[in-house]
Fold:
Amino acid sequence: MLATDPVMADLPAQLVKISEKQTPARYESPVFGSGGSFGASVSVTFTSTVGRSDVYKAVGDNAVRNGWVARGVDSTGITDRWLKTYPDGTPATLVLISEDPTVTTPRHIYTLAGGV
Structure:
C-alpha cells in the first residue's frame, strides 16, 4: 500500500531517486520488555540540485495531491511531516529528512520515509 502510493512511487521531476528500502510489517517476541508489532515502512532516498525549500514544497505539493495532510514543520517552519488514512482505515505517516542540511554543494540528499 505505502510502496505503491504515488507520493513514494512518483517523485516530482526535479528529484532523482537513488535508493528505496521496503520493510514489511513484523512481530518480534518480547525480550526483556521490548518487542511487539511493527508496521510496514518504506524509505526513498533521492538527490536534488534545487534549493531545500523548493524540494520540501515539491514533495509537500505531491503529498497533498495524493491525499496526505500536512501535520508538522521543522525548525525553520517548513512542512516536513504528513498524515494519511487509507480507505481501509490504516493510518500512515510520512517524514521528509534532509540528510545533509549544512552542506553547501549544489547536490543534496534527502530521505522520504513512510510507515503504517
